[in-house]
Automatic annotation (TrEMBL):
UniProt record similarity statement: Belongs to the HAD-like hydrolase superfamily. CbbY/CbbZ/Gph/YieH family.
Gene Ontology molecular function terms on file: catalytic activity; metal ion binding
PANTHER family given in the database record: 6-PHOSPHOGLUCONATE PHOSPHATASE (PTHR46193), HEXITOL PHOSPHATASE B (PTHR46193:SF18)
Cofactors named for this entry: Mg(2+)
Protein name: Phosphatase
Keywords associated with the record: Carbohydrate metabolism, Magnesium, Metal-binding
Organism field: Mannheimia varigena USDA-ARS-USMARC-1296
Amino acid sequence: MLQAIIFDMDGVIVDTEYLEFSLQKQFIEDLKEHNRPITLEQQSEVVGKCLKEIPVIVQKLSESSLPIEEIRSRYYAFFQNLFSTVDFRAIFRADIQQIIRFAKQNNIKLAVASSSAKSHIDNILTVCGIKDEFDFIVSGEQFEYSKPDPTIYRYTCEKLGVKPENAVAIEDSYYGMKSAKTAGLTVVGYEEKRMLIDQSLADYMGKDMVEILGILQKIREI
């Protein structure tokens, strides 16, 4: 029985994951202390990670001798500058509103479980005009360990009052899918081919929100 749909945000509700990813390479290059190229596969390690974990990966890829605190400070400034100028409406997957209507019509609860900071989540959902549509919104920063740890999904299901086996997670990253699968949810993957992401953990795959809606309708009938 389908009782809850839980969305990741970056890369699913809005196309922010690729936007950040496309600009991270230069940030890493500016810190790099070796002459080897950063491959697409290596850079893809950051996809789906929470903000506090990305600087650790940046330090590893760049082999920078800077203290992690300095790298973290610089990355946070880069992140804030990047997203202070983004037109989120322009990269909003507006067809999600069809899924929202489907959920409301069938008494299916809605939530967002994202590794991003709560302020970042709230801002994007507000700008896109859908924040009030969700029954629960949770950030990975609220936990000691974010995705791929399953705690965020277990906690979200508990707050929604549904069993994980009756909930579906819509995810794009390997870490997000692993988090949801380990927690016991069915996973619908939002197809992403511009970055090297392992999406093999998904139970179903959809290329856009319309296709994902069709998958959700079929799951509900099972």
